[in-house]
Amino acid sequence: MSLEQLLTSIPPGTADESLARQVNVDRLPAHVAVIMDGNGRWAEQRQLPRVEGHRAGIDAVRDTVETAARLGIRVLTLYAFSIENWKRPASEVSTLMVLLKRYLRSELKTLLSNNIRFRVIGRTEDLAPDIQDELRLAMDRTASNTGMLFNIALNYGGRAEIVDAARRAIASGVRPEDLDEERFAGFLYTAGQPDPDLLIRTSGEMRVSNYLLWQIAYAEIYVTETLWPDFRRRHLLEAVLAYQKRERRYGGITAPAVIGSR
Predict the structure, then answer these.
(1) What residues in the chain have per-residue pLDDT under 70?
(2) Which of 48, 88, 138, 257 is deepest in the core (most CB within 10 A)?
(3) Cα-Cα-Cα-Cα dihedral of 251, 76, 169, 185, to 10°?
């Protein structure tokens, strides 16, 4: 994918086109991670049941995935369902799972036509068998695609991922003295993927919510007041442009007077 391919999907003369043309394709974040927040608030503002916010959020997922792929982002990870989300009312959890199945079935052709590879990160073994089947089908069907890698974090928790990685390391027989950060990263759900360069959170909340705790160590964080169901192409482009204006320091020295600042 390239900027030109993205521009073919944008009406000329629009604000979206103007934003897209400002993007430096040579400085794109390799991996963008998103905390999709605000579905419930969106529904409440419209005096609708919370589940209607989740339904509306599917359009934001579709727009974000297609835009990221066309722009040339290598990896996109969306936080769909956390381990803590099981505490929500059973009816809401059930609706979320139904919506997930519906999304996978309706969007599989789009993933294939856009050369997008689909993966799931999280404790998928705890999901219902029918959900596991749908996820496996989507992963199998897109496994040979060579474009953007699209991760959905499902039944996911950052602390749980680190615990699972530690267990895998122990099970593999790695000696403690041989375990360093690089080797440990190979036991994470995202093994072999670049760490997120850009973390986007919608709805204005200032927290990382147990998301990719190991991987976001040096990610640039971008928070928008936009609620997830309203998040569209222009919001992703604005986030990428904000990222490109920042100086990434990785804890290094940029001037004698600011040792260790970020």
Answers:
(1) 1-2, 252-262
(2) 138
(3) -20
